[in-house]
Amino acid sequence: MPRSVNSVASRARRKKVFKQTKGYFGSRKNVLTVAKNTLDKALNYSYRDRRAKKREFRALWIQRINAGARQYGMSYSEFIGKLSQKGIALNRKTLADLAMNHPEAFKAVVDKIR
């Protein structure tokens, strides 16, 4: 009996890798072993950086809130502490947007917690 190789499945696996590595430079897009290694690394980076992105944005919001609060003679930690004491439930993303784009609204929040 002749040897049976599932070339349909093998080809599909290769096509899946090459489809994902489309646009890569040189042999990274069209040589299977190189493409697989490159794809593995790319997927690892994308998984890691989806989480890092959240940390980076939170750090950016904190910097913006700190800059906004310091205009009114308050540090970031004082500001956040007083917010929670007063029971004002605004998240950092919203506060950063107010500090950056709506300074009068941010001033109203600062006046409210004083």
Task: Give a written overview of the molecule.
This protein is mainly α. It has a single domain (11-113), classed as Orthogonal Bundle (c-terminal domain of poly(a) binding protein), CATH 1.10.1900. The chain has five helices and no strands. Helix 4 crosses helix 5. The longest helix has 39 residues, at 32-70. The mean pLDDT is 96.
Layout of helices and strands, plus pairs?
Layout: H1 7-20, H2 32-70, H3 76-86, H4 92-101, H5 103-113
Helix pairs in contact: 1-2, 2-4, 4-5
Q: What are the secondary-structure elements, in order, as H or E?
A: HHHHH
Strand content: under 5%
Q: Report the radius of gyration as a whole number of Å.
A: 26 Å
User: How far apart, in Å, are the first and last alpha carbons?
Assistant: 87 Å
Profile the largest sheet. Answer: none
Structural class: mainly alpha
Determine and state the CATH class.
Mainly Alpha
Total count of helical runs of at least 4 residues: 5
The low-pLDDT segments are none
Label the overall shape.
Answer: rod-shaped
Summed up, what is this model?
With 114 residues, the chain is mainly α. It has helices at residues 7-20, 32-70, 76-86, 92-101, 103-113. The protein starts with 6 loop residues before the first helix and ends with a helix.
